[in-house]
Amino acid sequence: MSEHPGRCLCVVMPCYNESATVREVAERVLASPYTAELVVVDDGSTDGTPEILAELRDPRVKVLLQPVNRGKGAALRRGVSEATADFVIVQDADLEYDPADFERVLGPLLAGQADVVFGSRFLAGQPHRVLYFWHSVGNRVLTTVSNMFTNLNLTDMETCYKAFRREVIQSFTIEEDRFGFEPEITAKVATGGWRVYEVGISYAGRTYAEGKKIGWRDGLRAMYCIVRYSRPAGRGAPVGRRGPAPAAAATPAPAAFEQADEALQPTLETLDGAVNYTRWIHDLVRPYLGPEVLEVGAGDGTFTEMLVGADRVVATDLSPRCVTRLRERFAGRGVDVLEADVASSAASGRYDSVVLINVLEHVEDDGLAVKQLAAALRPGGCLILWVPAFSSLYSDFDRRIGHQRRYRVAGLTALLDQAGLEVAEARYVNPVGGVAWWLLAKQLGRDPVSGANVKLFDRVAVPVLRRLGRVDIGFGQSVLCVGRRPGPADDGSLSAR
User: Fewest 10 Å CB contacts: which of 153, 199, 308, 399?
Assistant: First the structure.
């Protein structure tokens, strides 16, 4: 039996530039008799917050550092995955919400009445600071619209204090990186059919001068998220998981693999001629390439050409046809070629960079694959993933060439987090290709990578995409995601060649 039987709560606290308040909030959280764990996720702070967090000596504290600012939702996604206590609550790192209210919020959970509890700032009986009128109007509008879509009767959908049974919150994939977490998780709780309670809490809101960060753009995003995530689902069915229909998720039998490999061959041959496209991908990932590189699923070697000249290049593929082609293409050019699956590729050595270009979507257990490949990285090394985006774009063409799923940024970064990698970059790329894929593959049922289509895209669209640089509009044909293994690089920092 635990020495502290009342400690049943994991407090997940995202923070960004909260040096003025984070210590006091942490002390209040740890003073609660219910706190078993405090998981603090620093979201790329630059004001000394990480140094303050490093001074927290309580063994219940776990500090996770995001190398770049990714948003509250991204921080919560990582923090929630670390929870082990029976219940989980979200705590902001400012002084707006008081951990003294934990007992009130936990009440319905401890009594076995609820699966999820919202702490409302608008229920009568608890003190709250009087601040912005239009903020309160906006909050009530968002809550009302959310209720219309979810059929809940909440008074405060946007509240920070949301408490869950751990298995409930860990059954969801948090997709929103910023403040869209609030309507997203509310919709997923509603469509999951979980028992929801609401209790009154105190609230000491702060002004923008005091560090408040949410703005009107987040309100617009919240409205979008209400519509985006509110959809029918059975009780307890996790909503927003990665992947298309279940039928596409099975491991292909040998005959199915051969069929997919045969269907993929014309695509690989066509893409081999898309020189501008391949160079564009290389330019985007080049900052993360080190001197010793493993490319998994190298296919016909189109991207491998960009790696020739590195100190060491190992190219692997599961297809005997592709391995033969690779060995012919790179004979005498300093590229080691192996016939290997992901596990064997990962066991082939230690590398500064591991690259998968349109490969992970073919792997049945992508989470295990990412963990295996992460273990093949040297400290400071990078796992570079380029995968197709959005399950809504999944088409019969995807199925025929062996795609088991398409991805969202949130699902992919969750895999990196679970593998112990720091997310260095995660974004959608190639919106032009996304629109073309939707039109050709989804609406017209045509081959989106036929010779004529690829030539047009390579010669016309790619130069435009290059000029746009690293702009992310939240949509694209692909996701670029880079995870870095913590620790300094063995021989300095990674550098572009």
Answer: 153
127 and 25 within one domain: yes
Location of structure tokens 């490093």:
54
Are 318 and 402 in the same domain?
Answer: yes
Do 282 and 310 touch, CB atoms closer than 8 A? no
- CB of 292 within 8 A of CB of 320? no
Q: At what angle do helices 409-418 and 366-375 cross, to 10 degrees?
A: 50
CB atoms within 10 A of CB 388: 22
Give per-residue pLDDT as tens, 67-114.
Answer: 888 889 989 999 999 999 999 999 999 888 999 999 999 999 999 999
The residues, ordered by sequence, that sit 6+ positions from 222 with a Cβ below 8 Å of its Cβ are: 142, 158, 179, 180, 182, 183
Domain tally, the chain: 2
User: Is 184's pLDDT higher than 80?
Assistant: yes
Q: Which domain range does residue 180 map to? A: 9-229
284 shares its domain with 420 = yes
Q: Do residues 277 and 309 share a domain?
A: yes
pLDDT, tens only, 368-397: 999 999 999 999 999 999 999 998 899 888
* Spatial CA neighbour of 222 closest among 257, 280, 179: 179
Pairing of strands 292-296, 61-66: unpaired
Q: Is the dihedral of CA 241, 242, 247, 250 positive or negative?
A: negative
Q: Which helix (H) or strand (E) holds 416?
A: helix 409-418
